[in-house]
From TrEMBL, chain A:
GO biological process, one term: lipopolysaccharide biosynthetic process
InterPro entries in the cross-refs: Glyco_trans_1
The protein, known as: Glycosyltransferase involved in cell wall biosynthesis
UniProt keywords, alphabetically: Transferase
Protein's organism: Phyllobacterium trifolii
Amino acid sequence: MNENEQLILFDMRCLQDSAYKHRGVGKLSENLVRSVDRLSKKYKISTLGLVDPALPPLEDSFRNLVDEVCANAHVGLERGPTVFIELSPMTHDPLFVARVVNDTDVLKIAIVYDFIPLLKPERYLPNPSNRIHYDTQLTWLSRFDHFFPISQYTADELHRILHIDSTRITNTAAPVGSAFELLRSSALRERLPKRYVLAPGGAEPRKNIECPIKAHARSGALQDAQIGLVVAGNYPWDWQARLRDLYVSCGGQSDLLFFTGFIDEDDLVAIYRGATCAIVAAHMEGFSIPVVEAMAAGTPVVASDIPAHVELVERGDLMFSPDDAQEAMSKLEMLVSNESHRAAVIEDQSTRWQRFRADNIASMFWNAVDGLLVTRKPGTVFNVTRGSRPRIAFLSPMPPDRSGVADYSAATIKELGKLVDVDVYARGKLLEIPEGASTANTISPFPFVSPQYDRVIGVVGNSDFHLEIFNLLMRYGGACIEHDNRLLGFYRILHGLGRTQDVAQMELKRAVSCHEIDSWMSDESLLEATFLGELAKSCSPLFLHSKVTTALVNERLNAGAIHLPFSIYRPWTYDPVDLTIKNNARKRLGMEDGEFAIATFGYIHSNKAIEEIIWAVDLLRSWNVPAKLYCVGGWATLEHQLFLDLRSRLGLEDHIVFAAEYTSDAKYRDFLLAADAGVQLRTHFLGGLSGGLLDCIAAGLPTVANDDMAEAMDAPSYILRVPDHPSPVLIAEALAEISDRIRDRTKLGGERLLYSDEHSFKRYSELLCQYLGFDLKVPWRSRMKEVAA
Amino acid sequence: MNRSPIFIDLTNLVSNPIQCGIHRVEREIVSHWPGTAELVPCRFDSAIGSFVEVPADRLQEIIDGISGDVDRRRTPLPPGKRPIATDDLVRGLFNPEVFYDQLRLNAYSNLCRAPHSGIRWMVYDFLPYLRPQDRSCRTTELLMPYLRVLREVPQVSFISAAARIAFIERVIRMPDRAGPVIPLGGDGLGMPKLKFDGGKRMFSFVGNTDPRQNVAAILLAFEKLWDDGVDAPLTILGANGDQAPVEASIVERLRGREPFNQMDKATDGFVRHILNESRATISVGSAEGFGIAAYESLHAGVPVIALKGIPSLDLISPGGRLTIDAATPDLIANAVRKLLDDRIAEGLWNDAAGLQIPTWKGFVKQLAKWLQGEIGTMKPGEHDGK
């Protein structure tokens, strides 16, 4: 983007929320978003709407107002000049947009409606939790650069409450709907009395509808003249009944009181136009749309003397105390009985509302924004933009969590820390700071909203270790390193059947039944979906370790996932293909001379085709290959009796060894050194990776692997591929080929070294930084020097 | 020479007779048996865990039921009267079927382990083991016990050289157990040799639109030819396969085009009709166990566009076919264009007319010799096809 390009970011949550989207907040918001192209004369603009997936989806009419929508506020460094318009800062969770609000490179603008809860805390902020929440919202509001209050009164309150300087305030207002400028018929109007007073209200005590009720009921002139009272607003039946009782008790004739219930804008305009006069008696408002609407409809209006009304009406003779029904009554009687007074008021009010036309408001708003852009000096919150080392928040399970992902993250941070500053966020309090990291913290939303991080990376996998990180990524976005080729168990167990179905359907673009989900759960070889759609949508970028899965996700979900090759996390400090080392390891493990030792690494589970491998050993022995299989890894499930039974049925007790318990690292490495061949298979595909296969590759151990896995890992030539549907014959055939042809792995050294180099954590960290947008050639200042400076 | 009766295990045929390749082979054996030794049909009775004889009239009834109008195939078989003596079975039990029933396999295993066992099996192919990607995942528990017993069988014959090579070099690796290749008959349709007629421009494919048959490549080749204005109608004689969404979508696309025709039912009568109308047939499946369609086409004198390596075609001398190295739309289209040249086509028709294709009678005669111990192991290609 060059300086003439501008990204305009709108928080559109108020347009998702039925409590706001068709009311004053929604009308103003829609008007501003719709008119954003007024900036196009000067800038090349693109627009992005932030939407909350937890709220109802945006209606198409709102969605079409912006170029794109995004499910979180994570906007990358590459975005260029950005303006953020918070359309309704006090109505939804401020943390959702906190990362943008904290970004001093962004021009942040807030529309401010009112601070009514502070005026009546006993009603709107009844408990400490409400008050803390409101104070939090006020704190976040104070961080905006410029404010557009909807009235002078709200501007004054903004200054009073948050001490906002007047140079940071430009008034705006809610627009009068275009329907007020057109004349349409209304069936509702036909049902109302010939002459009536209109009292626009709303099912809110602060609207003070009781005042017009009393004033009208007590007015002998109005009652005698049979002038009705029409109350607009969606009052529930019980509330209407109470108001009727009040009306009658004050002397009103019950047949003169009408409630419109919910009405559309055309009917609203018609009943405004048909009214003899209007009365607005609210106790508190930031701005009064009814007052302006009445003026726009050519209906004289009297209003309570609250500040928001005073600045609109500007005539004491048309105002009354909201607590004085008698005064209100006299103002009404004056308008009704004195035709010349009424005509004068209409004349006076006929021009006051013009500045609230939608066009005018839009022009004033975007002209003001343009002015702010001209004078703006962007800040330099990001470390990289001020020449410091990039700082990354890295959220992941970490040791002592016993998971492969935790070990992998620890190894990543060790190298990544050499390139950038890494703050680790782990599931619990870590006893010591991991090697390579600057700090160790507990997982929270903080890194997602803090301006101190150039990037936030969350690590996700197919287990409950990752739930909290997943939820944070869903909420706030950020970069994600996703370890698994599928998240079936993660969704089904932790998110329930409904969401699991939704995610699968989104990916496969077809209906997916509960039965199908169940069948996938019981046999992952049937699995069709990766369940990575939500992550692909929320995270930028989404890193995947498998080439195959990356291609699949990008194709199916039209995503931009990045392949970051899986790193070797059991590297060798000595040459693992050395024959003496191999022989010593064989002795330590008690392997016999001449025995063709086959090892398979990792938990022993049916989805690793253990049955097929056992059958392959049976075949090999029938071919006079002295094969012996070592399953190096504990039992994954209770189904292991099946494997024991099969071994026994085939008479292979002496030729297949199951390590029933967790194998120490030293012993595990001994098997990698001592074996003649490896075999690593998966019966679920979609680009699944295997730490075991990576260990075999790193150790230069010729290994049989299925096509999908070998392809996903860019396996070198000493990994012999077999079809994904496991066939013992083909597995045995490949193992026999290793036995005949490439058992001597000393000859594989060159390829092994090349692969190890390309799949080192050093290379991984460099690529990660590159994809995150950090130029590693820049000589950044270290944080220590910066602190000293 | 073996004078004892030879028992033939027809368990699947008699319990669930259908129109499939193996049952066809069994019917031909029973119908054409010329041996000096008596051929005694039997079946494995799982209730008693042993083999029992199948009454001749009952067997005939089943065979008639397959080809006749009256469906009497499903009538339950009566329980076996008494088990056939183990010694008799050991002397000469022949299994021409592929089965995975563990009890029956165990019975064979025991018979094979008897001293001087004369158990003999016929093997068709090893596709489920060598091309697992064509089948559903996780079939090991079903399929492997068959192989385990196969490696105990003292003598095995094969219907193709490809199957024999796979047995010796890949799957069982016991060359001494490998018997002869006994090619199936190509005359099952009972057609005379057809003559070249330059007016015939139709090409045909006989079989279901299974991805292994590379039907998508055939369809795309013809679509390209038609787009180029080439007059070459195509008829597919077979239904759309369940697991062939790609093929189904192309078929749907082509359905409205005049030169394209598809008939779901590939009965012998339809096949005869199609061969009569065809300029050539196309057989480019990459996972053929035998390839009977190409074989029968050549027997009828109709040339074939064939993919290299179809086992049945490797059994007969060259000629009568245009062989392509890969089943790609371009190569198939090129072969079709060549065959539209009358001079080339006529040459291929003449070659096909001169080919000696094994007959069913010859197959059974050869089989009988092997079962009676008159011939032993044969090298691939050494067979009596007459």
